[in-house]
Amino acid sequence: MGELHLLRLILLAFLAAAPSSAAAASRLSPNYYRHSCPRVEQIVADVVAAKQRANPSTAAGTLRLFFHDCFVGGCDASVLVSPLTAAKSPERAAEINLSLPGDSFDVVARAKSALESACPGTVSCADVLALAARDLVGILGGPRFPVALGRRDARRSDARDVEGNLPRTNMSARAMAVLFARKGFTPRELVALAGAHTVGFSHCGEFAHRLYGGGGGGDGSSYDPSLNPAFARALQSSCANYKKDPTISIFNDVMTPGKFDEVYFQNLPRGLGLLASDAALWEYPVTRVFVQRYAENRTAFFEDFAMAMQKLGAVGVKTGRQGVVRRQCDVL
Ligand code: HEM
Ligand SMILES: *[C@@H]1O[C@H](CO)[C@@H](O)[C@H](O)[C@H]1NC(C)=O
Ligand SMILES: *[C@@H]1O[C@H](CO)[C@@H](O)[C@H](O)[C@H]1NC(C)=O
Ligand SMILES: CC(=O)N[C@H]1CO[C@H](CO)[C@@H](O)[C@@H]1O
Predict the structure, then answer these.
(1) Percent of the chain having pLDDT more than 90?
(2) Quick check: 304 and 293 in contact, CB under 8 A?
(3) What residues flank ligand 2, with Cβ below 6 Å?
(4) Residue 221 has pLDDT above 90, yes or no
(5) Cα–Cα nearest to 237, from 255, 271, 207, 211
(6) Is 327 inside any structural domain?
(7) Is pLDDT of 185 > 90?
(8) Which residue among 188, 289, 299 has the greatest number of ligand 3 atoms within 8 angstroms of its CB, and so is best to mutate?
(9) Alpha-carbon Rg of the chain, whole angstroms?
(10) The whole model's pTM is what?
């Protein structure tokens, strides 16, 4: 497939995806709860800040949770439905192997319960998740941006909806660009959003295939040559027991793991990208230009990330009678 052909494919998918989300987005508003729940932003902000202080891994997990919610059937809190409360297997059951962390569900539940005291039955779980993700990015040092509100929560959540809607680490950058285009995002927005990997961690199982190639006779000496050699050896040793202990994890941004900054992009040309999908963004010319730009210019990254997050928050949103306001985020 030639470069031009690909661009056409992206453009077509983009045009196909854009109108519905744009129409729904225009029905969201930052002042949606002005009369019904005027303190909504402050209430969420307070809960989120306390949770993040107590459990510093909350922020990255919640950012990822928001992404997964929005890419599977729109930002409708369908990812929050618990397998324990749902009649059939909900999205989260398929997500289990993607290891969405408990603290990120907990922070939404806490904010929601504070809101149910202040303004019962008013604020959707989807809006709570969007606000929490925004606040947590800010707490880690990232950009602040307005969150349009008025999303309704889904009436369904089905594990079978997940397949094909989330990127995988084994995808080429080109395949990721096509997937993101289908959701209405340009390659530039893909790269900006992937900058979320400036925080949080990944389990060894997600990148072990880059570490133990077998070419070294099983002694672990053969690693993906696009990895920085010292980094690769450190990973080989940190992850050595990952099959026995699948919880072993490594920071996505090895240089400044807890800070939302542009260092993730500076890592990629140096072979310090952790996931194959991170490294791929540097190998592919269409995405490389944006990696380069963001690595050199934090302002450019923050501006684009803020815009792309607002767009992410509008993907497939349900308004009015298309959805409901759940009383409990983990129960349909
Ligand atoms: C572009 C394609 C992407 C791929 C292939 C991908 C894949 C992954 C994988 C495999 C992990 C590790 C999960 C684990 O082991 O627990 C991860 C972590 C993470 N991802 Fe992505 N992701 C992508 C894009 C995004 C986007 C667009 C966002 C948000 C805007 C995001 C936010 C995160 C965060 C914050 C973490 C760390 C989670 C934590 O520390 O709990 N990712 N991603
Ligand atoms: C990527 O991994 C998924 C699940 O781990 C698998 O179903 C899929 O076939 C893989 N895709 C490629 C292109 O290898
Ligand atoms: C960095 O990006 C911002 C926003 O796009 C731009 O205004 C500024 O000129 C850039 N700075 C440099 C040094 O290129
Ligand atoms: C698709 C997949 O990888 N499924 C795995 C999810 O995790 C459970 C428990 O660890 C495994 O048994 C599945 O094979």
Answers:
(1) 84
(2) no
(3) 168, 170
(4) no
(5) 211
(6) no
(7) yes
(8) 299
(9) 20
(10) 0.91
| Ligand 1 center to 58 CA (angstroms) | 14
Cβ–Cβ under 8 Å, residues 176 and 275? no
Q: Are 304 and 318 members of one domain?
A: no
**Are 294 and 318 within one domain?**
no
* pLDDT score at 216: 44
Kindly indicate the confidence band of residue 19, based on its pLDDT and cuts at 50, 70 and 90. Answer: very low
Q: Kindly give the distance from the C-alpha atom of residue 102 to the centroid of ligand 3, in angstroms, as a whole number.
A: 38
Q: Which residue type sits at 260? A: F
Assign residue 88 the CATH number of its domain.
1.10.520.10
User: Does the annotation flag 245 for ligand binding?
Assistant: no
106, 198: one domain: no
The reported pLDDT for the residue numbered 244 is 96
Does a structural domain hold residue 4?
no
Run of H or E residues at 15: helix 3-25
Domain interval for residue 274 = 173-309
Q: Which residue in the list 5, 35, 68, 203 is annotated as catalytic?
A: 68
CATH number at residue 217: 1.10.420.10
Q: Do residues 56 and 121 both lie within one domain?
A: yes
Ligand nearest to the CA of 253: 1
106 a known binding residue?
Answer: no
266 and 156 in a common domain: no
Which of the listed residues 70, 202, 207, 287 should we mutate to test ligand 1's pocket, taking the one with most ligand atoms within 8 A of CB?
A: 202
Spatial distance between the Cα atoms of 221 and 236, rounded to a whole number of angstroms: 8
Decide if 151 contacts 126 (C-beta within 8 A).
Answer: yes
- In the chain, how many domains are there? 2
Q: Which atom of ligand 1 is found nearest the CA of 169?
A: 5
Would you call 209 a catalytic residue per the annotation? no
Q: Are residues 183 and 99 in the same domain?
A: no
